[in-house]
Amino acid sequence: MKKDSPIPTLKGWLDTQSDDQLSTILRNRPDTVLPLPPNLASLAARLQLRASAIRAVLKLNALELGVLEAVANLGGELHPVTAPEVVEYLHVALAEDLPAQDTIDAALATLKNFALVYGDDQLMIAQETMPALPVHWRLLPEVSDRGQSEEQVRESVDKLSDRHRKLLHTLAASGGFGLTRDAAPDADPSRPIPQLLASGLLARVDEQTVRLPAMVRRVIEGREQLPAQVRPIPRTAAPGSNDGGIAAGLEVVRHMRLLIDAVSHVPAPTLKVGALGVRVVTRLSKELDLDETELARLLSLGMASGLIRKGVPDPLPMDDDGGDYVAPTPLADEWMESDLAHQLGTLMSGWWKQTYAPWLVGQADDKDKPIHVLSKTSIIDSLPDARAKILSSLSRVLVDNLHADLAFHYPLAASRMNPDTITQLVQEAQWIGAYSQGVTAAGQALIDGENPTEVIKAPAPVENFIVQGDFTIMVPGPLTPAMQKTMDSIASLESPGLASVYRLSEKSIRHALDLGLTTPEILEFLKKHSMTDLPQSVGYLLSDIARKHGTLRGGPALSYIRSDDPALLHSAVEAGADVALRQIAPTVAIAQAPLLQVITVLRAAGFQPVAEDGEGASLNISPSPARVPAASPPPVVPALDESRVQAAVKAIRRENSASQGTVSTQPTLSVLQAAVRGQRTVTLGFVDKQGVAVHRVVKPLTVNAGQVDAVDEATGAVHRFMLHRITEVIVDN
């Protein structure tokens, strides 16, 4: 191309493209579609906005970025370059790693489909495309301006004096460019700048400007050259083990049920910053028998799934201090009653959009303070995107090749991912069952944007188990929600899994009795669901504990305590000073406190009182589960469907339609009335409220009282135009 030839523009190139090509560009750049661009100039301006270009380059793979970098290095931002020149540059830069010609052609086509590169025979880079890349971004192997290798550059830098080295460090810190009179070709060769230019460690831009080559800068800063991953990694991944994934996921479901129960009865108070303190985390960890890392994962997952939330619970705890608490939402009640597939699917969907990074708990934040569970400093907004990219890569390759696959398919995002974050997200995928020796069916559903509940084949709940003489209960599968709640009350889990083992103990049975269950009810539950006869040892254990349990009886009066053992009652009165217990008879005492508070104080003192009603029957006086209001669902952003794309293409073709029509010389009113009668489509030229001249393709419906109502052909919407604003009416040929 001649030097005086006009530089091609993106608008001019868009004007030559077919409707199909424009539709492809709009699908790839959906942020430029709404509101509908009125013409090609508007579309070209939107495509060259920095924010839009950033979104576009994030979608490119390493080869496409490499081709874009090659075009830029050849000067494609300033003047047109040809495709053969790009291929030749890549051949020099990549040598043996050069992909096949058709692969490079496909990468160029992709860049055009994103409108990042435009032109047919002559290629140019759209404005704001290269600035959209990270500062100092470079993918292709570097070649110094003098053709020196990295080893040669490193040797030259090592031989420099402190003065020369300091000058290079200054240039590196200031962006790589510097102004100096010593850049002129006739400058004093004894000065540092001419010496560095002569050695190839600086490059001359003009007579007053020097540039620090990228390779020299990297050597000065001590950064290693990473190999460019411009070839895709061969697929090696096999489908994951769905059974293994479901087994892992159902264990998370069981832990979530326990967590919901725990914070239902005792909501977890938050610190002023909204996080959970160390004491609360330690208490929950001991209560649920989970390590604190697992608990942090569980709390983060519950928040992301909407099952628990920070807020003011109803009812408030008795020791309310006026702050916020972590407590279940009403959604937790529905979740607890749903089937296992729905429960696991809900947790997986919540994990997919989770922004909390529980592995950061305990580390120092920017202010050198420890990060607490559910604190704002543990939130990473980019986690959902990183999670999606990592799981997508794992659907193609094994874990050993994960980093290489990420580097090819998502080079910009991968360059920003912390290696520890990648490791932790892979572990989380295994923990929740999205990855088990490969991506599971539920994990693939998440990648495809589908509901994982549809593909989770959870085992059917069982209603029978085996009670053994050593007080263990063997459960061959998951229990129904009602049975699971009873089992958790009377026995402690000893061996988790799809087939689990529980153990009856004095502590677990006392816990059940404290919750209001009676010995006959426990025996009936065990006999009804046991596949074998109930061992005598289990009956003896229940009878023995029942004799010791409930020897103190309490009732609402504003409350009383009674016992057939006067000495035991006397000891209880002495222990109940905090609730003002007063003995009024050898076997009866009263308190000026609610019964629940009296029972709590006496249990803390080592007694085992049981609540009773007016007829002596046992009562469950546990407080109502605390709940906080559920969060409002986020607004759903409508997807860019094909009808919107086609409407946008019609909208940006309005100028062309106007130029191809005939401007009527008849009075505007007469033409519009004729168009109404003939149901003809016309192009209106008018001035909007901002004084901007606009063309719009419409079909007039009515003309009345100085107003025109017409249907916009692009959107189907009805608009009203004032006759005095209409400048011309173009009748389509």
By DSSP (H or I, 4+ residues per run), the number of helices equals 30
Which residues sit in consecutive blocks of at least 5 with pLDDT less than 50? Answer: 1-5
Q: Please give the largest β-sheet.
A: 6 strands, antiparallel
Fraction of residues in helices? 40-55%
N-to-C span: 38 Å
Derived from helix and strand composition plus strand pairing, the structural class reads alpha+beta
Q: What value does the Rg take, in angstroms?
A: 37 Å
Q: What is the strand tally?
A: 24
Arithmetic mean of pLDDT? 86
Beta-strand proportion = 5-15%
Strand arrangement in the largest pleated sheet: 19-24-20-21-22-23
Shape: extended
Region (Disordered): 616-636
GO molecular function: DNA binding
Domain Helicase XPB/Ssl2 N-terminal: 465-576
Protein name: DNA-binding protein
Walk me through the structure:
This protein is an alpha+beta fold. Among the domains are: 150-221, Orthogonal Bundle (Arc Repressor Mutant, subunit A), CATH 1.10.10; 242-436, no CATH class; 466-548, no CATH class; 552-607, no CATH class; 653-731, SH3 type barrels (Roll). Helix 2 crosses helix 28, helix 5 packs across helix 7 (101-113) and helix 14 crosses helix 16. The model is unreliable at 1-5 (pLDDT under 50).
In short:
The chain is α+β, with helices and mostly antiparallel strands and 733 residues long.
Which key phrases capture this entry?
alpha+beta; Arc Repressor Mutant, subunit A; 733 residues; extended; disordered N terminus; six-stranded antiparallel β-sheet; five-stranded mixed β-sheet
